[in-house]
Amino acid sequence: MLAKIRTLGALLALAGSSALGGAIPGNVALIGLDHQVYLADPNGGEPQPLTRGQAGRMAAAAGGVVAAGYRAAQERPSSEQRFSWPTWSPNGRTILVQGVTVAGNVAQQAGVYRIDLDHPGAVTPIYENRERGPIYLYYSPTGREVAVLVTEQGPLGLLVLGVADGALHPLGLGFPFYFSWRGDGDAIVTHTGGAPAPEHRAEIALIDVRRAREGGKPDVTRLSDRPVMFRAPAW
Is the pLDDT confidence value at 2 over 90? Predict the structure, then answer.
């Protein structure tokens, strides 16, 4: 019995040593309090800036995370780019972000921008539109497209945006609007409208995006027209 206890203790010690010594894989993309994109190592260390707020330019000058109070006290440039909603490509080499160019706290341009970790040097615009600015985006499981929510006249619009060519394909309208990709990237499940009420409808739907890619109307199958207030579906 004593030998078994000693053996178990040795195995637990070995497991604990392995857990403590093993590095956490991958990186974390985050938005700082200065509205810029940073890359963080989950094992520790100072996050590295990927953007500097200058439209079309990557981080080139020395720097790091600047304290929010100090940053706010600095004189801001006449025009700068601010980012939000980072989403990783499936291969972990590209980050897409929502970006807006502001001057005097007034939006001048909004869009979706690509940051390529293998070829640093530019923040590449994929889609830009001041009137229909994106508010949320999420990569498809295939990495070929990104699903984007944009502002419309009243509701929100769900679009599929081609990462390589910037081709834009509308899928539907709703408010609020929640969605989740299917694993093969050919369909999206959505929840619009929250819960049904006399003044508006609500539904959960399955949207097949294959016909939309070709410029046609997407195939939509209603799964429920009586959803409750649970909002975000998930495959």
Answer: no
